[in-house]
Design a protein that fits this description.
Blueprint (H helix, E strand, L loop, with lengths): L1 H33 L10 H24 L1
């Protein structure tokens, strides 16, 4: 029971960090456009990709719970 709760909180924390990374990458691109800094569109793609990877365990867990119903 304790192990399951720890895993759940770890997944929630990873999801929160992933969302912060995704929104941070999007805001970095928007900031560069506002400041008229020429930056390629793929400059923050790695950061966004890591954010997506961190949110995947939460999304897969939610989908798996939906399939079990």
């Amino acid at each position: 029971m304790k192990k399951k709760k720890i895993c759940r909180y770890a997944v929630y924390t990873m999801c929160a960090i992933g969302l912060f990374l995704i929104f941070g990458a999007a805001n970095s691109v928007a900031f560069a456009m506002d400041m008229q800094i020429i930056e390629p569109w793929y400059a923050h793609l790695g950061q966004a990709f890591v954010g997506v990877l961190l949110t995947l365990p939460y999304l897969v867990g939610r989908r798996r719970k939906a399939w079990l119903r």
